[in-house]
Design goal:
By secondary structure, this protein is mainly α. 75% of the residues lie in helices and 0% in strands. The chain has nine helices and no strands. Helix 2 crosses helix 4 and helix 5 packs across helix 6.
Length: 197
Amino acid sequence: MHHREIILMAIFIALAVAGGFFLAQFPNIELVTAIIFLSGMLLGSKRGAFIGAVAEFLYSFFNPYGMAAPPLLLAQISSMALTGAAGGVMQKFFRQRQPPIWLLGFTGFFLTFIFDLLTTLSFTLFVGTGFAGFITAITLGLYFYIAHQISNGMIFAVLLPILLRHLHKLAVLQNFLPNAPQAKLQPSVNFPAERKA
C-alpha cells in the first residue's frame, strides 16, 4: 500500500469524524454516512470498510455524550463498514460514469435504514426488552428514523454527484487510487443537475 493511500484513508477518517461532530447539534442530520460511502467509491470496498469501521469507533469513543454500549457500538461499526464497502461496490458498476442521482439517493436512504435497524435491534437486545421492546422503540422513534433516512437520501443525491465530479479531477486520485477512472467522469444520462456540477 502506497503511503499516499494511507494518508488519504486517514484524511477520510478525520473528515468522517469531524462531519459527525459538525452537525451533532442537529438530530438525525449527519455527514458521516456520505463521507464513508464516498471513501469507498474512491478507494475501494476494503479501504472503505476499514475507514467506516475506524471512523465510527473514533466518533463513538470521543463522543461527549459517552461511548456507546458494546452491542450498540458493534452495530454502529458494522453498519459503517458496510457503508464504505457499498461505495466500492457501486463504483465497480460506474467506473466511467457517475451513478444516477436517484440511485445515490436511494442508496443513502437504504444504508441509513440498515444503520437505524441494526442499532435499534442491538439496543433492545442489550437492555433485554425483546421483540416487544423493539417494536416499541421503532414506533416511538419512527419520526426520527424517517428524518434520518430522508436527510441522508437527500445528502447522497445532492452532494455526492458534485463531490465525485471534482474529486476525480485530483491528480492524487488519478495516480494512486485503483478506482479512479483515467478519463473524465461523465454525468449520468438525463440529469441536468449533474451536468451543471
